[in-house]
Amino acid sequence: MRVRLETDVLANLEAGRRVYVGPNRDPAEIEALNPGVKPRLKLRSVHTREEARDLRGAEIAVPLDEAVPLPDGRYYGVELIGVRVVTSSGEMIGTLREVMSTGSNDVYLVRGPDGEVLVPAIADVVQEFDPERRVLTIDLIEGLR
Questions:
Q1: Beta bridge partners of 84
Q2: pTM score, two decimals?
Q3: Quick one: which H or E segment has residue 80?
Q4: Which residues contact 10 (CB under 8 A, 6 or more apart)?
């Protein structure tokens, strides 16, 4: 079945790995992944077009505790939800509420006292993430607010 990949960590989708499908988070085993231009995923439990069609729009997820560990300094988007976002001068911007995947880079939706701010997840903006304190430090750039 065709899928929209929202990860660049394809090791989480290798054959034999378990994923969880739909609102009930039903477990399923991956049979194969073709990550090409139009990614396709084959689940061992899906045998017909009708079964695949029934899953249209369903989320396919890998829980963080079952995900492939990332190298130091890299984090899954779900690990960033709820962190405080501050500027390098210490100004509170708000709380990171959503990680949006775009074509070129992720964008963080931050809600704070001044409303919503979209923060591009690029090296010129994101300066540091302290996972223990759950603080993301950014440098504001022109037009960010």
A1: 95, 135
A2: 0.80
A3: helix 77-80
A4: 33, 35
